[in-house]
Amino acid sequence: MPEAVNRIFVFIFGTIVGSFLNVCIYRLPKDASIVKPRSFCPHCKTPILFYDNIPIISFILLRGKCRSCKEKISLRYPLVELITAIIFLALYLHLGLSWQLAKYMFFFSLLIVVSFIDIDYHAIPAYLCFIGIVMGLLFEAIATVNLLKAGQLTSLELMPIYISLQGLIFGMGFTYLFKFFGDILLSIYLGFRKKESIEGEKESLGLGDVDFMGLVGVFLGIKAVIVVFFLAPFFALLYSAGALFFKKSHLIPYLPYLSLATAVFFFWGNQILRFIGFTF
Ligand SMILES: [Zn+2]
């Protein structure tokens, strides 16, 4: 098959997965099933016909309006489909058709779901990162067994599962320590201001962030945890500056920035590590 066909196929596959991620983002926080019922318009509850449910294309053909009630369809649906497709294509160009490709398609799909749920609710269902961590360890366990069978493992330090477990413990431990001291500093600050803390302002980092960094550690290791942890605040700061400018809430969801930093690390991590002279 010509390479261009592969790329187009991966992109289309990304839009289809993205369409499913939309369903997860919408239904998981409501504890609703992600398989039944069929997709429906959130306004008029009319089931969406299969030919109106084609990723990205249907949105354009319908000009962003529901066929029955003409209510606007959120631009987020085609956006999530497009983001997923672009990431899948980038992963394919980076990794080729491989076991790694499947692993990271799963990983980044989860990051998209977690980010958009966090944008809506400022929290995520705790089981999402847990499922990701278990799946990640499973991927690495299988990879370890395969390497052992091939006789390619000479030491414990080279075992994928060992590296992942290290990443998990480091990711959660490191972030939890920061949260612990951050919370103390924040409570001193709030006490100093003698002000009742506003809901959500009590914590420097949420426990969701701790789980999330464990997830990053499992899939990408210790270096990723450190880079993502210190890179994400820059993205958040850029957004906060904009949000303050437009007088929006100062409460910002943090997982989208951690996800963005994770993607940046994944694709440009080596350059970043070389740039800051960070080698160990
Ligand atoms: Zn409708």
Describe this structure in words.
The chain has about 280 residues and is an all-alpha fold. The chain has two domains: about 1-95, no CATH class; about 125-280, no CATH class. About 70% of the residues lie in helices and about 0% in strands. It is built from nine helices and no strands. It has helices at about 5-25, 55-60, 75-95, 100-120, 125-150, 160-195, 205-220, 220-245, 255-275. Helix 6 (about 160-195) runs parallel beside helix 8 and helix 8 (about 220-245) packs across helix 9. The relative contact order is 0.09. The mean pLDDT is about 90. Bound molecules: zinc ion (ZN). The site of zinc ion (ZN) has 8 residues, from loops. Zinc ion (ZN) binds near residues 41, 68 and 71.
List keywords for this structure.
280 residues; mainly alpha; 68% helix; 0% strand; globular; binds zinc ion
